[in-house]
Design brief:
single chain, 589 residues, alpha/beta, Glutaredoxin, four-stranded mixed β-sheet, 22 helices
Length: 589
């Protein structure tokens, strides 16, 4: 049974016009009118936060929300609102730990009463709804929000860092690969932190073993027919996939397998990257060149992912194609652009960077906001949202590194300026979205997401080195002080460790000095992009374009194109052949 979405509460509140046995009159917009209506009618607000691709969300629709007792309780006592989590990044930031589906019940004043994770069977749902009616006291799932705070130092304290590293070490699964005891997938921040330690003399061998074991295990989650990676395995052996394919996972895995190929030249990793790229452009790319959000796990209620994805290409297509969520969001496109650039960097293939450029131009034409930032979708009911401007800022910086074209660097700087103006909180960190006017209860205090704050820290820090503008160091420090203040040593928080590590020093830095149309300079640039490091700055300085991108460093005038490997204090002698770049970098470091 499909949801009935209406724009107002008229059908619910008009006397005599609403049957308690009718389908639930879900509201499709999250706004303050919900709480006003709940106050007038003495009801609670029931938030069903779901995802288009989510199998258990569909099951909850078909079973729980079709149950007559559940319907009657909701109709009599609740203002029901159903929101696609991908469409509302602010709600996703607030309640992402509780889904999907996430079931949140709030009082009319915006106070949280209950937060529940995952599928709730009809009987349990009816009991939960009745218990709230009988006693609306907030339950154990609700904790008082902590006041924003910030650490004095823009870095982790040594003991704090050691605690986070200890948890990272303890949660590794040496028998199966990956981190954690249940769900298995390629977690991007954790893998980035691991890959960053490959060259460390004391941890390099352990990091390589963990990285390769996890990358190898994750190969079982890549669809052997269409390509693309399933979301995760809910068993520790990596062989029990949830078959939905989210763009976020395609982008993360494409970046990571590209980096793995650059490092180890294992053909399995190149094959994985190619399979991910093929799926991305064949199934999730729109005719305009922008990228869609996700593909469902199931073809239908009758044909689930387990049955569908066991078939070959012809058998699948004879049945049909699982639904693709064709929304076009700036955030998801930023993720795709960054991944495509990395894939181009390590393979030298021309198509991926052209695909990245085309998507970037589409976002600029359809999602740009005044001041350098970006909206989320075609119509945003809230926002702007930090995630969109952050992802596009990262994407532009990736395009700059991959192409050497300076206008992309300027667009990344503009996105960072928008982030500073709209999302920097003087009390600490960067907020996911500004509170709505007249926000109630918990929604008066904006969310500060760890992953977004880590992303802002890393983007600002890289812009500091790319541009030579030291003001970015202050923006990075502002976010890092917040992360240091909220880091929990009992949880895996690799995104904080990665941000902290990158702030400790400059990236691997390679500059190509030569004309934009000089084949020798182009060959040097292509070789520089293959250097196996994620924290990597590659500049291409054509003297006809003015001063070098980072004016802190000067380069000699030479009669031929050359590359220089630089540290914070010095640069190498000129390198004239592509194969000499990697040895020069290693010597400089």
């Amino acid at each position: 049974m499909s949801r009935i979405l209406i724009s107002g509460l008229l059908a619910l509140t008009c006397a005599g016009a609403w049957s308690l046995d009718a389908p639930i009159a879900w509201q499709a917009r999250w706004n303050e009118a919900l709480f006003a209506e709940a106050g007038r009618t003495h009801r609670f607000v029931l938030l069903d936060l779901h995802a288009v691709w989510c199998h258990w969300c569909h099951v909850m629709d078909e079973e729980t929300y079709a149950d007559p007792k559940v319907r009657r309780l909701i109709a009599a006592h609740y203002v029901p609102v159903s929101i696609d989590a991908d469409a509302d990044p602010a709600l996703t930031s607030r309640y992402g730990d509780w889904g999907w589906p996430a079931t949140i019940v709030l009082a009319a004043d915006g106070t949280e009463i209950v937060k529940r994770r995952g599928f709730i069977p009809p009987e349990q749902m009816a009991s939960l709804l009745q218990a709230i009616i009988d006693d609306p006291t907030p339950g154990p799932s609700v904790e008082a929000a902590a006041a924003p705070k910030t650490a004095r130092s823009p870095a982790l304290e040594p003991a704090q860092r050691a605690g986070l590293v200890h948890t990272y070490e303890a949660l590794y699964d040496p028998a199966h690969g990956g981190w954690g005891e249940v769900h298995k997938y390629l977690d991007a921040p954790t893998m980035e932190y691991t890959l960053a330690h490959l060259d460390a003399p004391d941890t390099g061998k352990t990091a390589e073993r963990r990285a390769r074991q996890t990358l190898d295990a994750n190969l079982t989650l890549i669809d052997p027919v269409w390509g693309g990676v399933y979301q995760y395995s809910d068993a520790i052996d990596w062989r029990s996939p949830h078959f939905e394919k989210l763009l976020a996972f395609q982008a993360d895995d494409l970046r990571l397998y590209s980096l793995a190929w650059a490092r180890w030249r294992d053909p399995r990793y190149l094959d994985a990257a190619r399979a991910l790229h093929r799926y991305l452009v064949e199934f999730l790319r729109s005719p305009e060149g922008a990228f869609y959000v996700s593909q469902d796990a199931d073809l239908s209620q009758e044909v689930t992912g387990h049955a569908f994805y066991a078939r070959d290409d012809g058998q699948r297509r004879a049945l049909g194609i699982p639904r693709v969520d064709t929304h076009l969001y700036a955030r998801e496109n930023g993720w795709a652009i960054t991944a495509l650039c990395r894939y181009h960097d390590v393979t030298g293939e021309a198509a991926p960077i052209e695909e990245a450029r085309r998507a970037a131009e589409w976002v600029l034409a359809h999602r740009a906001l005044p001041g350098g930032g970006f909206g989320h979708g075609e119509v945003d009911l809230g926002g702007p949202f930090l995630g969109d401007s952050l992802a596009m800022g990262q994407a532009f910086l990736a395009l700059y590194r991959s192409s050497g074209e300076r206008h992309w660097l300027e667009k990344s700087r503009a996105a960072m300026a928008f982030i500073q103006a709209r999302f920097k909180d003087p009390r600490g960190g960067y907020i996911s979205a500004p509170p709505a006017a007249g926000a109630s209860g918990v929604f008066r205090e904006p969310v500060r997401a760890l992953d977004e704050n880590s992303g802002v820290v890393r983007l600002a820090n890289r812009l500091r080195w790319e541009s030579g503008d030291k003001r970015y160091a202050g923006l990075a420090a502002h976010g890092m002080r917040y992360l240091a203040s909220v880091a929990r040593e009992d949880r895996l928080e690799a995104e904080i460790l990665v941000a902290d590590a990158e702030l400790a020093g400059p990236p691997v830095h390679i500059t190509i000095v030569g004309g934009r149309h000089d084949p020798a300079a182009a060959a040097l640039h292509a070789a520089a992009l293959t250097y196996p490091a994620d924290y990597l700055q590659v500049d291409w300085w054509d003297r006809s374009e003015g001063p070098p991108p980072s004016p802190e460093i000067t380069y000699p005038a030479l009669p031929r194109a050359a590359a220089f490997a630089c540290t914070a204090n010095s640069c190498s002698t000129p390198v004239f052949e592509p194969e000499g770049i990697a040895p020069a970098v290693r010597a400089a470091l």
